[in-house]
Every structure is written in structure tokens, then in C-alpha cells.
Amino acid sequence: MGGNYVTCTDREWSQAPTCQGTNLCFHLAIDGVKKSRYMPGESASYQCWQGFQMTGASTVTCQNGNWTELPKCKSRKCGPPPVIENGDLLSFAKNEYLHDESLEYKCPNLYVMKGSQYITCTNGQWTSPPVCLGRLKHMLCGQRLHDCSSFLLL
Questions:
Q1: Closest by CA position to 44, among listed 67, 24, 21, 10
Q2: Taking a C-beta distance cutoff of 8 angstroms, is the pair 120, 101 a contact?
Q3: How far is CA 140 from the centre of its chain?
Q4: What is the CA radius of gyration of the chain?
Q5: Partner residues linked to 54 by β-bridges
Q6: Which of 47, 73, 102, 118 has the greatest number of beta carbons closer than 10 A?
Q7: φ, ψ of residue 136 in degrees (nearest 5)
Q8: Fold type of domain 2-75
Q9: Measured between alpha carbons, how far is 89 from 143 in angstroms, rounded to an integer?
Q10: How far apart are CA 23 and CA 74, in angstroms?
Q11: Span 20-69, pLDDT tens digits
């Protein structure tokens, strides 16, 4: 499309087009509608595709020949879930998960789970996964995991 239009590439908007003339703004394409000139004070609204979250104002305005700051659309999807030591997912891991999708972990026999057994994809980030502790370590150390590095698990 060249330098005359704003495009969304790799999850970010391209540079705002340069403005020419006396306080006019030029060439902004939104939702396939292209307008060649915008008068000072005219606005245009952005909307992110499904699965993306907008940061910044959704409306840009032509002011003194320049557009106000363009919003950014950030993916709300998560990548593969975190691997936990001595624990497993109860489902097969995928490469990508939708916002609000949850997964469940389990610990093997002789291990105790600390934290929630579920994690959730929230705005592109996983919530904290649980930890699987050996029963001896759990009984001797309680909440102070960092003090237990020298104990031998049987």
C-alpha cells in the first residue's frame, strides 16, 4: 500500500501518514474505507480484530496536520503453557491458546501440589502454575521453599 495508508502489520500499526497542506491530514484507511483528506478536528475510529486487545485511544484526530497517537492491538492469545517440574498437564499442549482458556495440572503420587491446579490464559499471559513438592520436603519446609534446597528427597 505504500506510505499513504496506515496498516496493521505484525501486531502494530504502521507509521502515521505524513500530512501536507495547511493543517489537513491525508490518507488514512480504516476498515477498507479510504479517504484522501481529513480536515482539522475530523476523527477516525480504530477497532482491533477478534482475539486482540487495544491499548491507547480508539479514536485518532487530525490536529494541525498530524494524527493523534495511533492505538496498538496486542494479541490476547497465549503460547504453550509453562512446564512444571515433577508435574504434568491433563491435556495435550498446543502452540496457541485463546484468552480465558484454562488448563489443569496434576502431580504424581508422593508429591503434593502447591498453588492452584489450573492456569488461565489472560490477555496473552498465563496465570501462575502450581509447584509439585515431594511429600517429605512439603512436611519439613512448609511455605519456606527456598530454605529447603539441602534436604534429600527419598
A1: 67
A2: yes
A3: 39
A4: 25
A5: 73
A6: 73
A7: -60, -45
A8: Complement Module; domain 1 (2.10.70)
A9: 24
A10: 31
A11: 556 777 656 555 556 677 888 888 888 888 878 888 998 889 888 888 88
Q: Is 120 helix (H, G, I), strand (E, B) or coil?
A: strand
* Secondary structure of residue 12 in the 3-state scheme: strand
Question: Taking the C-alpha atoms of 69, 10, 96 and 71 in order, what is their torsion angle to the nearest 10 degrees?
Answer: 10
Task: Assign 3-state DSSP to the chain and report helix, strand, coil percentages, each to 5.
Answer: 10, 40, 55
The grid cell for 125 is 499471559
Instruction: End-to-end CA distance of the chain: give it in Å, rounded.
Output: 65
In the chain, CATH 2.10.70.10 sits at 2-75, 88-141
Grid cell for residue 31: 476498515
